[in-house]
Amino acid sequence: MPEQTYSGKDIQVLEGLEAVRKRPSMYIGSTGPKGLHHLVYEVVDNSVDEALAGYCTAIDIVIRPDGSVIVTDNGRGIPVDNVPKHRKPAVEVVLTVLHAGGKFGGDGYKVSGGLHGVGVSVVNALSSSLEVEVKRGGKIWAQAYEYGKPTGPLKSTGRTKTRGTSVTFWPDAEIFETVDFDFDTLSTRMRETAFLNKNLKITLTDERELEPRREEFRYAGGIIDFVKYLNESKDTVHNKVIYFEAEGREGVAEVAMQWNTGYSDSVLAFANNINTHEGGTHLEGFKNALTRTVNDYARRQGILKEKDDNLSGEDIREGLVAIVSVKLRDPQFEGQTKTKLGNTEMRGFVQSAVMQALAEYLEEHPKPARSIVNKSAQAAKARAAARKARELTRRKGLLESSTLPGKLADCSVRDPELTEIYLVEGDSAGGSAKQARDRSFQAILPLKGKILNVEKAGINRALSSEEIQAMITALGTSIAEEFDLSQARYHKAIIMTDADVDGAHIRCLILTFFYRYMREMIEAGYVYIAQPPLYKIGVGKKHEYAYTERQLQQVIARMPENTKYNLQRYKGLGEMNPEQLWETTMDPSRRTLMQVTVDDALGAEKSFVDLMGDQVEPRREFIQRHAKDVRFLDI
Ligand code: 0RA
User: Is residue 376 domain-shared with residue 510, that is, in the same domain?
Assistant: First the structure.
């Protein structure tokens, strides 16, 4: 190759991508699994921008056996003509210059802001290899990169009648803690993206298994289908999903909502397709409008009398599943995780849009309107009763008693930042864990079999369950409205259950409890899932553990031919002696913990509700769908 001479600009470019490689977390949040999957979202979001601009109708994502992911769209194709300032084809600039992606795109709504929209150049910088193929102007163009740098110039490789872009990348294993893509994580996110972009077809294929797994998402109803999906396993208060949209100078707002007979609410807010977990002005506008409109209606109809207090926002939102999706030109993302919409104009815009449309809906649909208001009034009554019951419980000293549960084997260190509590399935595994642990900083709380299903029970019954009381007192934070994170007695709460169906169920029950009553524990990153091994492979006096089926295959493949080995399958924690439990699952220097996040409110909500909810059918489906993942189905 001819010697290259670098101009000042080129050096700047390299420095840009070098900076990304030096401090990846600044650009993608982390180098853990979350950051890894973020790479896919980044590429897909660029294709979604093409869809938002009206040029792309289909996106295909394939996880390849060689560790790469390929994202293909049928958009306009990244431009290939030269950018005078850089003296390079636009596609090369988009892939090698930080934040260059949007500069050639003109205006329109974009998926960008916060950690999103950092640009495909960031994906390029963090990939050991990346290939881009563009179909545009009758030609096919291709270029390859290594660690963000082109291995050669953009070349035309053939002719075509179609248009589009395809990006294949191999995440750099030196940068990421893991380069193993998780199908379900991607699938949840792609489903969400499809819901938010009506009629956009997204397919996800996993070619790593002998039998490829494939899912296709395309929703003609958009966020209406999203609400139906979230309410799939619920009994609803009214049949049809309420939907409206509004457009103004500020942007566009879309709302879909439907109440179910449950106790919790799931109001998800999005701005330019980004899940604004921390809420923001659009959500505030929605909530204000909802509370006002329903109260106005209830008074006009005489359901609320003059002497009655207004229904609270919380009462009205009980059982509500809603999607609030806004699109705006210049979104400002704020907050800890940059997922809080800050644009002040959106508050009033969403509020008046919702007030007008919802008032009209209620007037025109008296039957569902009445059911909704009655449901809110009931919630208000129940809440007053629950408050009384809680005060009573508190007086009895159950919630805030300083006496820790008898079954808790506490640790000796008192600094919560240093300590952890294992929530262990069953007394026998609890016993092993007690022997295995380092008692200075590890506490053990054994939990009896199935803890109460808090999704079905109201707060009152939940609080009278012994297992739940034990968890609350041990954790120290209290719950719901009285929850106080600063009182947490441990900064790691580690759920440790058997690797079988029952274990998965119990894990789900405990997670549901956290999700409903101590969500801030999850948000603070205090909740973890222990990963006990599935196999022990013994060769002579040595042994190794495998935590997944794939790992087992790898261990066996690495052994010299005809080696005799002894394979032990662990059906439950009880089969490990304390020493094995320590070295595989509890020793901080050797164990793997999975941190639980609410990043995926959809996934969490959905799997909790499917497993815990009212209806039997989705639950059976869920178990069948996941039966492949469940390592030891006890039949
Ligand atoms: C810059 C400008 C235009 C499109 C794109 C980038 C673009 C980027 C990606 C990334 C993945 N798929 C993509 N598709 C398009 C607009 C091009 C025009 O005006 O024709």
Answer: no
